[in-house]
Design goal:
This protein is α/β, with parallel strands linked by helices. Helices cover 54% and strands 13% of the residues. The longest helix is centred in the middle third of the chain and has 16 residues, at 128-143.
Amino acid sequence: MSKKILIADDHAIVREGIKQVLAEDKNLKVSGEAATIKELFTLLDKDKWDIVILDINMPDKSGLEALKEIKNQYPHLPVLILSMYGEEQYGIRALKAGASGYLKKVSAPEELVKAVDKILNGGKYVSPALGEKLVEILVAEQDHVPHEKLSDRELQILCMIASGKSADKIAEELFLSVHTIYSYRNRILEKMKMKSNVELTQYAIRNNLISI
């Protein structure tokens, strides 16, 4: 059975081009077209769709705004954003807003069928360039996690404290003095901007640093 595709783009020639590209795959069928966001939601309300291909530049409302509304009203409906803009400008925003993929129009002839197939099979589609950008963002976000500021030894002691071990026990296991363990603890509290072992324990549990 063919998958029902709904296209939203304000240019008829672009919609026609998308249809021609998708016609290469007999399992894909463009069953609806919208030139405005208003028309798009009218069609969404009337029928069930397998995927929406949505232009980011629409005359009556931004494609990103429409995307958020779609994900609010039809949370399980995948949306592929098609754009003339590069990934740097809108790709990350689109994915954060709930898009299942982001594709530049210039790449559509070569990549559209592959992108739609991947999304329909439950995946996400991003270009290699956007994939690299996502990795950069992920690494940057990890750098902002409080425990990433700790040295390896400090993280080890944090986990031991959170596991309920006393300073004496930690000192014994690590072949360090109790005084050194307290120095580490104070440094950990300072770096983590916390005031007690209880806060450290709660943080460790919340961030899956220890098993409970």
